[in-house]
Amino acid sequence: MRTKVVVTGMGVVSPIGNDLPTFWNNIKAGKNGVGPVTRFDASRLDARIGAEVKDFDPTLYMEKKDARKMALFTQFAVAAAVQAWNQAGLEGAGVPKDRIACVIGNGIGGIEIFSESHKKMLENGPGRMLPMTVPLMIANEASGNIAMRLGIHGPAYTAVTACASGTDAIGQALDMIRVGRADVVVAGGTEAAIVEFAMGGFCMLKALSVRNDDPEHASRPFDRDRDGFVIGEGAGILIMEGEEHARKRGAKPLVELAGYGASCDAYHLTSPDPEGEGGARAIGLALADAGLKPEEIQYYNAHGTSTQINDPTETLMVKKAFGDHARKLKISSTKSMTGHLIAAAGAVEAIVCAMAIIDGFYPPTINLANPDPACDLDYVPNVGIHGKIDAAASGSLGFGGHNGVLVVRRA
Taking Cα atoms as reference points, which of 292, 265, 307 lies closest to residue 398? Predict the structure, then answer.
């Protein structure tokens, strides 16, 4: 009999809250996390808005001297991991540390470190670069630092599949527990790419919203007047373990992580397959893995980036995967509030699905004023609604054609 995997802890650092209760209350309230970029002078960019993490204090979760040795994406990840670890009651729980693993999704590592060191090298030579450039910059340092902070001695991995990274990390964690490679896995995603270099690159792709004079309404998934995504930052971390393992140590299962599906479009580096075949296949695989029929899902948290290509393609993808049930589903893109957290998006949105089930609440898609005729499903426009949710799914679509889908079920 296959091991049932449950979530026993969750942690969030986001543009609309740096802990789970604040984050979820703001999701329910439809709070907007987008504003002018303050992290640097963005005047040279076409897009000058972002969804920044606000009032973040790393010393709540780690020693100040340790925070200095971490890039921002790692600080976010460690903070969210400590939150999740504490909620799961793992401190002093007696779980052998070599039976605990860590899988963290990330896109481009400590890009602010790369940008600063590269500038110093060009201006004054390599001898003026930051001494810790490499260990601060590389993507695996989030999982490495989480392991050091929590004393984890099992495998510590990094998943890098662009915007699907957080989702794929959780999917890999699910498989690790099922096959017995770990009893507990700290899993999720993190990103901190609000720097001129990264935003400039996205601007060159014409991917970002340039609604600079109206940031509050810039992220508008499925709306006819959308003009691109808003870059965000943050981290989402889950504690996952076998249900029997959790109950034996007296931990409360919050939700079941029931299924995972992944596919690749093999179509284009930055655009999804316009027929939505790959994404639909990933949904089908996740449902089959969970042992659920399409009509047993009540809520779908969409990738919903607010780009011209993604939103109608994802709508088609959902229709193909869910069939007639697609019109009965409630769907929302919480990126309308958080912006696009890149590698952290899928993990944070898995937490949204978990909280939606726990709290009986369908989150809204804010800023949906003029629905695109090609996006004709129920996106819970502007105001969330209460209702029982037994099972939810979350989809992530990444550059390179990476598709990842998670299914979360009531514990």
Answer: 265
Domain final position from 248, 266, 283:
248
Contacts of 204 (CB under 8 A, 6+ apart): none
- 309: containing domain: 255-410
The active-site residue out of 163, 203, 353, 375 is 163
Q: Per-residue pLDDT tens for 20-49?
A: 999 999 999 999 999 999 999 999 999 999
CATH number of the domain enclosing 41? 3.40.47.10
Is 113:44 a contact under the CB 8 Å cutoff? no
Of 102, 203, 245, 340, the catalytic one is 340
Active site residue 340: yes
**CA 303 distance to own-chain centroid:** 10
Question: Which secondary-structure segment (H or E) carries 322?
Answer: helix 310-322
* Residue that has been written with the tokens 């989030």 in this structure: 142
Q: What is the pTM of this model?
A: 0.97
The number of folded domains in the chain is: 2
| Amino acid 255: pLDDT | 98
Question: Is the same domain home to 271 and 359?
Answer: yes
Query: Could you confirm whether 203 is annotated as catalytic?
Result: no
Which residue in 102, 303, 353, 402 is the catalytic one?
303
Say whether 94 sits in a helix, a strand or coil. coil
Give tens-digit pLDDT for 286-344.
999 999 999 999 999 999 999 999 999 999 999 999 999 999 999 999 999 999 999 99
- 27, 72: one domain: yes
| Residue 303 a catalytic site member | yes
- Mark whether 215 and 324 lie in a shared domain: no
Structure token pair of residue 283: 């949904």
